[in-house]
Write a structure and sequence with these properties.
- The complex is a heterodimer of chains A (115) and B (113).
- Chain A is 0% helix and 51% strand.
- Chain A is built from no helices and eleven strands.
- Chain B has 113 residues and is mainly beta.
- Chain B has strands at 4-7, 10-14, 19-25, 33-38, 44-50, 56-59, 62-67, 72-77, 86-94, 97-103, 107-112.
- In chain B, strands 2, 4, 5, 9, 10 and 11 form a six-stranded mixed β-sheet that branches. In chain B, strands 1-3-8-7-6 form a five-stranded antiparallel β-sheet, with no helix packed on it.
- The relative contact order of chain B is 0.34.
- The chains are: A mainly beta (115), B mainly beta (113).
- Chains A and B meet through strand 5, strand 9 and strand 10 of A and strand 5 and strand 10 of B.
């Protein structure tokens, strides 16, 4: 299994500011994904973090709002820009790993509250 | 649009009971199916993965099954314990991108001591 560390684990942010979330995996991985979980909701995929190229965003998510970096095969960042209360969510990083490469593992999540 | 539905949304049982959580899909093309556990305010812990060629997986007191013909999966928890209290999430891989998951809304389980 993969060990995925996220920072910060939680934060309270002011409206209009931006916050960068870090995701560190304990081994090199090909794919890294970012999900959002709004209060009382299930998880929704934001984007795929691609190493060496621009992230691939899902419908409803744009780079200006959620810029993503992937400088190497163990690390990625997600920035939540110009935050509003609607951005209050848990943001989770994930990667497939395991012997078959099919088991998806998640970090502990970063719980953001925007006030 | 692919959807994943979990029933019931919430469940409360006394300690020691066996229970079944249900998951169904609108898209009958089943790829990998993975069950997760989420504790309040926390990330997801992988419980069981059923690959598309498999019908069930077991880990300890947990057993997950997959019926592709009906687009359903169940998670069976034997001899439930208060420590099993959590939200259980069912997910399936998207067609053409099986590492991208579509999640159900979850079942909130409370096991009463």
């Amino acid at each position: 299994s993969a060990v995925i560390s996220q920072k910060p684990s939680r934060d309270i942010c002011q409206r209009g500011t931006s916050l960068t979330i870090q995701c560190q995996v304990d081994s090199q991985v090909t794919m890294m994904f970012w999900y959002r979980q709004q209060p009382g909701q299930s998880l929704t995929l934001i984007a795929t973090a691609n190493q060496g190229s621009e992230a691939t965003y899902e419908s409803g998510f744009v780079i200006d709002k959620f810029p993503i970096s992937r400088p190497n095969l163990t690390f990625s960042t997600l920035t939540v820009s110009n935050m509003s209360p609607e951005d209050s969510s848990i943001y989770l990083c994930s990667t497939p790993t395991g012997s078959s490469g099919n088991t998806i593992y998640f970090g502990e999540g970063s719980w953001l509250t925007v006030v | 649009k692919q959807e994943v539905t979990q029933i019931p949304a919430a469940l409360s049982v006394p300690e020691g009971e066996n229970l079944v959580l249900n998951c169904s899909f609108t898209d009958s093309a089943i790829y990998n199916l993975q069950w997760f556990r989420q504790d309040p305010g926390k990330g997801l812990t992988s419980l069981l993965l059923i690959q598309s060629s498999q019908r069930e997986q077991t880990s300890g007191r947990l057993n997950a099954s997959l019926d592709k013909s009906s687009g359903r999966s169940t998670l069976y928890i034997a001899a439930s314990q208060p420590g099993d209290s959590a939200t259980y999430l069912c997910s399936k891989g998207r067609g053409g991108a099986t590492n991208k998951l579509i999640f159900g809304t979850g079942t909130l389980l409370a096991v009463q001591p």
